[in-house]
């Protein structure tokens, strides 16, 4: 991370991986220069106040709805999938063919839906309420998620990988790693943190997905990032939370 | 709608507007030639079986996860926002500047999040269960939605419109109508169907959003579409459902 004028500026809540992590992984894999603004001390323009300022700006063309927000010079952009696609396109982490770029975008939005459903296991009623205020509903939603939705999503991505493997590809799309692989890595990492028992039961049937997760973790820039203090540990404030009472029996 | 080889083919559940409607509005505004495949009789390759076939294809590069699916020649694409952007780009319904296209995509994903939250008011636990199987949870989720989320989203889009109006724009972004205006129209139309009381209470503070809805409805191709039998009426199987017990008091 450097702080010169050519750096991207990422605005995201400082204490969690959250949706910002999908953006961080693209920036890190690309070795792009970026400032993780809200993680700077408040005296240096950081903290949550920096995010609120960005949300309230009236001089940026289109206001942003929520973090993550990426600033690239005068351009401010919201929405995780939009930001990931933008950064990936500038740093060679998208497929080459135009049609494949649309296919990659559809994969990215499916990964985003998957992550949203993981979030809603512990927050089925409202993001503004604590988990403790919606525990019975969370238990009910999680049980359907683990029985139906999780196998459906994993099965889908397994099928995408198998089909691409049939044409010689080791990634979700095409012959090279793209941003959608980085994002699927993040969801699998999060699921293994949140639902270790449920994931252990599903691993053998979804070995291509599990191997993709390992292959992304081994990429030199990603491995260096994961070992650094720039990677915030998983915790019970983000998308992927470990509540033992929600996981499957071990 | 015509049926020649140059037509788009849209695969979406035949009995509801659902997420397919966002795609239909772009196709209709563009006067693009398309076949609404699953609405054809089964004997002509239609019905829900056509969707299942499309989902199971193994010869389309990347499998699709769920409808809507758009076929353009050999390209099959899933995800509503991806499809809308693709069609819009081909028919002059995106902004011209590259930066504005990313801003438009972020707006579209925020509209998609908004629609998802409307859906979850009646399905907070699982899409696979009936509303009647999750009524207490739906009542709780809807109350937070109407009190907090609905005003927040409407306020955001009001602010986007006000800011663009300050530079002379009558639409969400730039000087011309784009696909994101069509999509916001659809969410407002759906909300007025689902929550007439709640919307009436919010209209006066969000007059730019309400006027945008009217302006889109008046576009000649949209007006013709809305008056045709190609527009499926709102009903209690789609995203926007009217359950009187969930709406605010009148």
Summarize the structure.
The first copy, chain A, is an alpha+beta fold and 250 residues long.
The name of the CATH topology of the largest domain in chain A is Glutathione S-transferase Yfyf (Class Pi), Chain A, domain 2
- With strands numbered from the N-terminus, the spatial order across the biggest sheet of chain A is 2-1-3-4
Poorly predicted runs of chain A are none
Average pLDDT of chain A: 96
Order of helices and strands of chain A: EHEHEEHHHHHHH
Kindly report the oligomeric state of this protein: homodimer
Specify the overall morphology of chain A: globular
What kind of sheet is the major sheet of chain A?
A: 4 strands, mixed
**Largest interface (C-beta under 8 Å):** A-B, 43 and 44 residues
Level-2 CATH architecture of the largest domain in chain A? Up-down Bundle
Task: Tell me the number of helical segments of chain A per DSSP (H or I, 4 or more residues long).
Answer: 9
Question: Could you say which structural class the secondary elements and strand pairing of chain A correspond to?
Answer: alpha+beta
Strand content of chain A: 5-15%
Give the distance, in angstroms, between the N- and C-terminal Cα atoms of chain A.
41 Å
Report Rg of chain A: 18 Å
Number of strands of chain A: 4
Q: What's the CATH first level of the largest domain in chain A?
A: Mainly Alpha
